[in-house]
Amino acid sequence: MPLKNYSIRLDEEEYEKLRKGLSDYGDPDLNIGFILRSYIRDLNRALPDLKKSDLGIRNNLAFFGSILRHIDRIAVIENILGGKPIVERIKREGQGDEHE
Q1: Closest among 18, 51, 20 to 36, alpha carbons compared
Q2: Residue 73: inside a domain, yes or no?
Q3: pTM score > 0.70 for this model?
């Protein structure tokens, strides 16, 4: 699939935090591009159903954004309770999938 170059404006502070967080997984710029493409693809798949909702697209997107924030809180609570950090568990599980 050919890729189209597109320029977007991002909050510099949030972009740098994301870039720093993704640097552990390889080239952070490539990872940011992958994440944006993934979210755009998923949004394109969901748009027909979101248009049918009475709540409107902004409310639906805000709802799903709150789910992502909730996942982050669960990871923080898990760390506080002394469980293994979720990032380490995901890395371990990902490495297990690669060897199979």
Answers
A1: 18
A2: yes
A3: no
